[in-house]
Each structure stands twice: as structure tokens, then as C-alpha cells.
Amino acid sequence: MILDDLAIDQREAFCLDLARSAAILALAGFERQAGQPIGMKGPQDYLTETDGAVEQHIRNRIATAFPQDGFLGEETGGTPGDVAWVVDPIDGTANFARAIPHFCISIAFVANGEVQLGAILNPATQELYFARKGRGATRNGQSLRVSPTTDLNATSFELGWSNRVPLARYIQALTALFEAGSNVRRSASGAMALAYVADGRTDGYAELHMNSWDCLAGLLLVREAGGVTGPFLSLGGLLDGAPVLAASPAVAAALSAATGIALLTQADILATPNQPTLTTLRTA
Ligand code: LIP
């Protein structure tokens, strides 16, 4: 089913209100649970009651407003279909569980084979990042551009980590980035990291495997802020996850070479309708 601009307009207004209402729940949970026992889904995989409550809130509101839309969430799963909301209720759970105010709600809306809307809201700072395909990216309404950095010795990259990837592969990429001259950070929230690339606060973000709910909103933000990314949906990332790379154009190839994660090629761009014009990018 192809959605027209009016249908996406309706979801844009809803998406912004949905992110704000979810953030109220998330912040209340953050303030309530500080110092409480921490639940674990698995090694280094935290579970808080707020994750489930926020996702249920989001899922219920979508089911009421747009019952025909699909849903895929980190906590409750789902069958997305062609028109779907892809949601991480609390990205940065490890931070949330330890009372570190660096976490967010990440909401993406996928239709017509692409991410159409992306919203990332950090309830602790009240910074709302939003992008609509072809219409730019904002933070609290202010337009965003990726960083102008060209000198690798001045770059600050972020490299995400999870135990879904062999440690040796992570260390290899980390070493290559430091050897290329970059400073490398990890903040434990991939969605916030991608929003910071769009905001010019970081020059690039890479992770060797991310789930769709962690990255789809942020990848749209980066592209709409003038950045470049790797392929994700075309790799089957919606259901299975895939490597993620997003960066300002001048340093994207270096990040790709150091991590071995491919960039979108000109052929990828030309094959995707309505893509913003980008310089030709070599793949890794
Ligand atoms: C997080 C991701 C991040 C990854 C973390 C964790 P969560 O998601 O956003 O990319 O590096 O290990 O998976 O679990 O906080 O929602």
C-alpha cells in the first residue's frame, strides 16, 4: 500500500505528540526507579519495568489512531508489514537502569519502502529530534546539519557495542579508528548517538550490528541533516538487524574503511526514489 503526503502528514503530527506522551511516562519511571534493583534480560541486557510500560503505551495509541498500521517493538515484537511503526521505548537501557540521564524514546515510521518519519526524544534533556523524509531534520524545531569536520585528527566518532558481535571484531574496528587519528566514544544509546551525528555533535557513528528499532529514526535524521549512511533496510535490517554507519560526508569513507561497514553507493542511491543528491561514495 502506497501512502500519499496527506496520510504521512497525519502520522507526522501524531508521531510528535506520541513521542512527548511516551517521554512523560519514561521520565516518571526514571525518577521512580533510581537506585532500585536492576532486572536483566541476559548478559549486559537490562530490563526495566518502564521499557514495557512505555512500549505498551505507544502500541496502544498507535492501535487506536491507525489500526491498519503495523508495529515492531523491542519489547513486544510484532509483524511490521509494509506500513509500520518501529519503536524502541527506552534506548540506552543500560544508562536508564543506572540512573544515567542519557536515554531516549526512538520512533520510526516506515512506508513506501523507506523510513518516512523519525523521532528521538531524550526525556531528561527534553531534546526532541525529528525528521521527515525530504523535509530536513530538527532539534526542538531548530534545523540540523552534520559536522563540517574534514581532518581525521579532529574527528570524534562513536562506536556502538553489544554482545551480538564477537569482541575481536569490535576491538579491530576500535583500534583502526584510533589509529586513523580519531577520538572514539561509546554512550550506550545508539539512537541518541545517531541523533548527535545529525546534530553535528559527533562526526560519525558505527555499530557492527543494530536492531531496526535502535537505528531507523536516527538514520533518517542523519540523511536529512546532510549526512551519509550505509544501507540497512535493503540488507534485511528491519527484521534481522544489520551493520550501521552514519557520518558527515567528508569523513564517511574513513569511518567505513576502519570499520569495514559499507556506505550507500551511488547505485544504491539511484535505485532508491527521491533520495537526496549525495557525492559518489565508495563502499568499504
Ligand atoms: C542499545 C543500542 C545500542 C547498543 C547497546 C544497546 P537498548 O539498545 O541502542 O546501539 O550499542 O548495546 O543494545 O538495549 O538500550 O535499547
From TrEMBL:
Pfam families given in the database record: Inositol_P
InterPro entries associated with the record: IMPase, Inositol_monoP_metal-BS, Inositol_monophosphatase-like
Record keyword Iron-sulfur present: no
Source superkingdom: Bacteria
Annotated Gene3D superfamilies: 3.40.190.80, Fructose-1,6-Bisphosphatase, subunit A, domain 1
UniProt cross-references to CDD domains, sorted A to Z: IMPase
Entry keyword annotation includes Hydrolase: yes
Keyword terms: Hydrolase, Magnesium, Metal-binding
Catalytic reaction annotation: a myo-inositol phosphate + H2O = myo-inositol + phosphate
Enzyme Commission designation: 3.1.3.25
Binding site for Mg(2+) 2: 90
Cofactor requirement: Mg(2+)
Signal peptide bounds: none
Residues bound to Mg(2+) 1: 74, 88, 91, 214
GO biological processes: inositol metabolic process; signal transduction
Similarity annotation: Belongs to the inositol monophosphatase superfamily.
PANTHER family to which the protein is assigned, alphabetical: INOSITOL MONOPHOSPHATASE, INOSITOL-1-MONOPHOSPHATASE-RELATED
Entry protein name: Inositol-1-monophosphatase
Organism this protein belongs to: Cypionkella aquatica
